[in-house]
Task: inverse folding
């Protein structure tokens, strides 16, 4: 299940201490700077090699009696030359990290879950954009699974009209059920599930929760109105899916949540794309909205490349850097 998601202003005013960074040492330096440094390194090494060879030749011509000095100098020169060649081969065999290398995917469409909107990705979007990715966050109406899938397809269409090339489709929580259907679009090359439902044919998000032997604590905090729309009470937001965020953020999540139709949560999968496309899965080991054991079983069934994070249900808000890393892996950019 999903939280109501804070607006970007929350991140700007009260970021969690462990995700507030001025420099991310895990990220590679910019591509132009990396290229320049490599060229300079090779130039210096090759220049020193030729200088040593020239000095050695001069010494031999001038001081024949110091033949042993020349031999030692020549050995050192050969060693430097070998190092230069080795570094050059190493650079060639380990290309620069970042989008665009080796045909990596440059387009990412992010899909939120229930009680949320596109701003649930507010901490991941700038990290992807800083790496040169084209990013769009779909806005789901949360009125039915079919309506939500249609909204994601429109987002893919808009991305394709602006930027050519394949797409990585990322879904959080209920958004996993959505990308499982929308991911059949031929322009989608990879799927990333973030603490998300991954229903098989005939399954639904609500059905997966109901069938799992251990109930999710969040279920005790859901209520449904006469129109069939679910909401979460404040205690549920505080204790069961956003417990990894600050108190101020949790209050905002509770206040800004949007009702989600039972037609969305109970909508059944027709043809899950994860059966035919490479998939990645992030398990939130402290999730109290979807049992971590259920997440693990879905990831195993999908044969997904799996990462486990010690975080709550809103992994993309609590651990945006690590979630971004998995998206980069799916895009072939790490």
Result:
């Amino acid at each position: 299940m999903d939280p109501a998601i804070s607006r970007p202003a929350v991140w700007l005013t009260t970021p969690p201490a462990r995700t507030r960074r001025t420099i991310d040492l895990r990220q590679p330096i910019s591509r132009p700077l990396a290229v320049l440094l490599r060229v300079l390194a090779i130039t210096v090494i090759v220049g020193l090699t030729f200088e040593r060879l020239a000095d050695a030749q001069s010494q031999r011509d001038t001081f024949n009696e110091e033949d042993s000095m020349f031999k030692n100098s020549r050995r050192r020169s050969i060693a430097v030359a070998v190092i230069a060649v080795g570094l050059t081969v190493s650079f060639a065999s380990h290309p620069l990290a970042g989008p665009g290398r080796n045909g990596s995917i440059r387009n990412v469409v992010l899909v939120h879950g229930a009680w949320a909107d596109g701003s649930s990705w507010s901490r991941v979007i700038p990290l992807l954009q800083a790496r040169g990715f084209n990013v769009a966050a779909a806005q789901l109406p949360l009125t039915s699974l079919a309506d939500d899938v249609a909204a994601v397809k429109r987002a893919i269409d808009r991305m394709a009209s602006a930027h050519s090339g394949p797409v990585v489709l990322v879904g959080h929580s209920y958004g996993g059920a959505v990308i499982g259907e929308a991911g059949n679009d031929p322009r989608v090359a990879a799927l990333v599930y973030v603490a998300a439902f991954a229903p098989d044919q005939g399954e639904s998000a609500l059905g997966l929760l109901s069938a799992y032997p251990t109930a999710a604590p969040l279920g005790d905090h859901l209520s449904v109105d006469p129109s069939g729309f679910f909401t979460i009470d404040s205690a549920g937001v505080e204790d069961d899916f956003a417990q990894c965020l600050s108190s101020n953020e949790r209050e905002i999540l509770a206040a800004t949540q949007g009702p989600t139709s039972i037609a969305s949560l109970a909508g059944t999968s027709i043809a899950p794309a994860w059966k035919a496309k490479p998939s990645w899965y992030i398990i939130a080991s402290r999730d109290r909205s979807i049992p971590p054991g259920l997440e693990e079983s879905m990831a195993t069934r999908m044969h997904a490349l799996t990462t486990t994070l010690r975080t709550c249900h809103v992994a993309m808000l609590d651990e945006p850097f690590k979630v971004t890393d998995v998206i980069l892996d799916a895009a072939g950019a790490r």
